[in-house]
Amino acid sequence: MTGGPLARFTLRSGSLLGLTALVGLLAFAWPLLWPADSASHWLAVVLLVASVPLGLGVVASELANHSLDVKALAMLGVLSAVGAVMRPLGAGTGGIETVFFLLIIAGRVFGAGFGFVLGTTTLFVSALLTGGFGVWLPYQMLAAAFVGFGAGLLPRLRRLELAALCAYGSVAAFVFGSLMDLSFWPFALGGGGGLSYQPGARAWTNLRRFLVYEAVTGTGWNLGRAITTVVLLLVLGRPLLHVLRRAARRASFATSETPSA
Amino acid sequence: MSRSVTAFQGGHQALRAAPGRPRRDLHPGAWWSWAIGAAVVASLTRNPLLLALVVAALSYVVVARRSDAAWARSARLYLLLAATIIGIRLVFQVLVGGLREGHVLFRLPQVDLPAWAAGIQIGGPVTAEGLWFTVCDAGRLAVLVWCVGAANTLANPRRLLRTLPRAAHRLATAVAIAVSSAPQLVESTQRVTRARRLRGGHVTRAHAIRGIVVPVLEDALERSMSLAASMESRGFGSDHRPSRYRSEWWRAPESLTVGCGAAAAALTVWLRVSVPAALWPPASPISWPVLDPAMVAVAVLLVLPAVIAPRPAEDAG
Amino acid sequence: MSGPEPAVIFDDVTVTYPGRDQPTLRHADLTIPEGDLTVVVGRTGTGKSTLLGAINGLVPHFSGGQLRGAVVVCGRDTRTTRPRDLADVVGFVPQDPVSSFVTDRVDDEIAYGMEQLGIEPRAIRKRVEETLDLLGIADLRHRPLTTLSGGQQQRVAIAAVLAGQPRVVVLDEPTSALDPTAAHDVLAAIAALVHDLGLTVVLAEHRLERVTQFADRLVWIPGDGRVIAGSPEDMLSATDVRPPLVRLADRLHWDRVPVSVRAARRRAQAERIRLAPAVSEPVGIPDPPAAPVVSVRGLGVRYGQLDALHSIDLDLAPASVTVVMGRNGSGKSSLLWALAGALPSSGRLRVAGIDPRDADSDRARGLVALVPQTASDLLYLPSVHAECDQADAESSQPAGACVSRLAELGHTLDPRTDPRDLSEGQRLGLVLAVQLTGEPPVVLLDEPTRGLDYDAKDHLAAIIRDLRGRGHCLVISTHDVEFAALIGDRVVLLAAGEVIADGPTRDIVTSSPAYAPQIAKVFHPSPVLTPEDVLPTCPLPGADDGRPR
Description:
The complex is a heterotrimer. By secondary structure, chain B is mainly alpha-helical. Chain B is 64% helix and 5% strand. In chain B, a hairpin with an 8-residue loop joins strand 1 (104-112) and strand 2 (121-127). In chain B, helix 2 (28-43) packs parallel to helix 9 (252-274), helix 3 (48-65) runs parallel beside helix 5 and helix 7 packs antiparallel against helix 8 (205-233). Chain C has two domains: 6-241, Rossmann fold, CATH 3.40.50; 294-525, Rossmann fold (3-Layer(aba) Sandwich). In chain C, helix 4 (106-116) packs parallel to helix 6 (150-162) and helix 15 (401-408) crosses helix 16 (424-436). The longest helix of chain C has 18 residues, at 180-197. At the B-C interface, helix 7 and helix 8 of B face strand 6, helix 3, helix 4, helix 5 and helix 13 of C.
């Protein structure tokens, strides 16, 4: 096996993934969808955010139970540790910029399913090691899971592989940076200000306000995330792709389940 | 408040001296339920006195019952994060704040952005009411962050891992591998970094980073393969239903701790209904917040687990 | 072979790995009786690990490749039973215990296998305690695994498989990372299990001299795919693996190889054996070298609160080999790293008149070369060729300098090979060549013999002698007493960060119970080091073969 996907989606895990993606998107964009001004709306948002890690956990478990053998599990554990150890090296508040590149490379080599599970477990392990459980964790896990997932879906490009990964990495940094900011926007400023979220206002109004807010406050962080990801990919991309592909070849994941006689 | 804390300290010492009370980690679920109770209290009020009481209660429990493990050292980071939140909110209130009525402290030059940029007003008068309201409102969010911080500090996350459902056994195994590999990775990084120096300085920065990351990753991947072999030969994934050597205990201290959090939350809900003004003082004009006796009771309930919970186990397992 | 049913049967087994044209095992037949301790010997790469892995089905289920024939363990055929379904009958202890730990605490690790087998929690708790007692590690019960010493970790790894109460335990080189004392303790514990529990044990071991006395049977894998088994006495004279007692028996033309030091001593006492003249010459305290290339005064290394080294004084002469010995944690590595100037240290340090701590790393590379214990830490490029080019640039040498160093060391490697695919010996050679590219007068080797078989060790010894002949000053840390006896001019013994003995190899090691090589134990109290120190019997009449050692 040289770069074939490690964890394959079945109809069941695929549809669960789709559902999780939908719930995740709603959880990110809740300020635009719900006027968070009453207790019942708050409850809805809380339930939505709480169901994100549940969905991620179910999809990841499904993949781990049905399409990851013991070698792939051990590889998953060790790579999660690598990501979790690298994460504190990033100084940014978003904090995931030193992890993105690893997820992108792993997703690229081992496929979308493995990238998805790795994103989920890496952020979870990081929270375990540093005491980082909180409302932000589901969002971070979701972002990381889909960064790894997307990297596995990129088309096969032989010569332009690294360029494609860099382009993907910078887009991912901006998209997920903005989504994270959107979900926290109502808390970041409090009500009433010019850049603030207006509960009850039309989605379009809030979106425009958010875009200004994001342009003013978020560009620096997002750019930082994109740059660190691209620089790490340029410096380490090629050797790490080589190392992981070699590991995949040696581990012979594909043959391990079939006894030879 | 101060009297009740002293009383608890007395009881606390008596309990510590009691011989029959073994050290053990409280079930992580109990700490999290207690912290959620405190978070409900904080989310229901903007009264700075009650918020301060909640912070004091949580901080006392953290100091009394945290362990020496790595996650327990994150408390300071959460306090920093809470302070940052208040600071950022103050900066935004001054620059683009919404509340500009009341006693004007000073004025900033005012700029009105065009309509396409959502008609935002930058600068203008800065008022005492605006700042005070921001401190109280952001303070509420900061206390919520500190609730999460307290739970993270007190709950042993590895035990949380053991309470995961059986369906997640394989995933939990991968996470457990990651947790036990992390210290080895740090060690291997230090070793390789030291070894890098032996190969001289004629290298670019990129080469230097590669020279560290590549051997560390190779090492880690090699480890993952021998780990997999060891797991396979020890029966991982066989048809047996895996059992648990150390099951998580749920005993009286767990229930009492959860009860304290729930009672504090319930009492605050009652306060919110019976004396709403005490919990939600108006932003303007500025007035001294009310201290209701029930608020002290809320704080007492929240601090009780400092005595109820056993002291944490000494090892980091 | 009368008695109980065989525990393991290899019936016409042929194992072929993908990408190899030759099978690793070819038509191998082997029977391992229940309750025996069987030692598997053979050079690196001959198929020891394949044989061990085939016992619990890791080969081929886990390793890939193809297995023809049948391996039957306690009545179960590994073709149809996966390793995880053999876990209740076969325990497997891999070479590096640390990398096999799944959990991070001693009792959790011991319980892990039983949890996988679905054993009831109360039974697990009982068995954890029993197993802790069995291996004498009950006081480590709640300790984090990373805080244990190498010997303790190895015991925990053994306890972790024993707790499942398997009938067969397979161990792949259980002592390779241990100092002589810890290695002896672990092997004695294994032998006790065989005696007390009737356990069937199969273990591979490079340093045969350590295990022959415990072995019931030896299995030799010559490297051509065959597997040959027999009693230790018979097999020792047949194998190409030559521990010191075998070489002694050869030299004295004994008909049988003694399997233990005790047996050899009895026989040597019974015969009149003459020692080479060099041995009987009194060795005085050597004069300090007139012009030392390395000079150290009051050297100290601290890690936080821990004094790893303190007040070390040393003078090292050019064209000499100094061996540094001591228990794990005695400060051997710290000393080497401090000498290389790559570790913050206090005190005075001069290498060829320069303090390597002040020199920039290029200059330091021209003074001292250090090959660290994990030699592969220095390699990060995808091919031998790229590593060599990089070494030339780092040492400001013309292109090709490193490649010619590599050739001088007797290695001809395909330049396109990934360094990770090399054997231990080849990789050590590559790192040595990389580090020697700058022609430094001082060469430091930290535990270079780890994982090397007798051939590779002989090759390394030849390289060391050659470097000494060309004027290099070598400092080598090792646990391997036989290797130290073979190459050392001088031995420095460390304990708790201090030099506790320093002098000619013969004086130091023959007087130390823990660091004496086997031959020294046989001839104690005569200061005999190697079989070459003993004059061969039946020399040609009149020819006094007073060979210098």
